[in-house]
UniProtKB/TrEMBL annotation:
Family matches, as InterPro entries: AhpC/TSA, Peroxiredoxin_AhpC-typ, Thioredoxin-like_sf, Thioredoxin_domain, Tpx_Peroxidase_subfamily
Protein name, entry field: Peroxiredoxin
Source species, domain of life: Bacteria
PROSITE patterns attached to this UniProt entry: THIOREDOXIN_2
GO molecular function: peroxidase activity
Organism: Orenia marismortui
Entry annotated with the keyword DNA damage: no
Higher taxonomy: Bacteria, Bacillati, Bacillota, Clostridia, Halanaerobiales
Length: 154
């Protein structure tokens, strides 16, 4: 793993494909906080629980003017099928498929030997600056309450 992006770093604009077959740019979300919730691979148990936890707390994030993105290297057809299977309808599932892991690499969380990202949460403020960045053990479920607390206190 390269160095994890540091708190205070401004993240350059980046364009993602989302499950509605549209493109989403980080700049489209300026004025809101953004949770970049990286999970290694779709159709795995901890990743599924991670996305379901975010979905279950979506209204709390919305009240805090925060958009949540679930990001992995999976291609969009896979992300779409997985999201439907999980019942994830509000959290935006986005792909970091091509260039493979390109966004994760920019943030220093791509696992070259595995071909996927770390399990990580990065929170951006309304201007796109990192206010929180944490990598978790690959089999560890991130704590949604920790994210909400960080957002509430910023």
């Amino acid at each position: 793993m390269d160095q994890l992006v540091e708190v205070g770093t401004s993240i350059k604009d980046y364009a993602f494909k989302i499950t509605t077959d549209e493109e989403l740019k980080l700049s489209d979300l300026r004025g809101k906080k953004v949770v970049l919730s990286f999970h290694p691979l779709a159709f795995t148990s901890v990743c599924a629980t991670q996305m379901k936890d975010l979905e279950a707390n979506y209204d709390k994030f919305k009240e805090l003017n925060t958009e949540v993105l679930g990001i992995s290297v999976d291609a969009m057809p896979s992300k779409k099928a997985w999201g439907e299977q999980l019942g994830v309808e509000k959290v935006l599932l986005v792909e970091d498929f091509w260039p493979h892991g390109g966004f994760a690499k920019k943030l220093g969380i791509f696992r070259e030997n595995d071909g996927f990202s770390e399990r990580a949460n990065i929170i951006l403020d309304e201007e796109g600056k990192v206010i929180f960045a944490k990598v978790y053990e690959i089999g560890t479920l991130p704590d949604v309450d920790e994210l909400l607390e960080v957002i509430e206190n910023q």
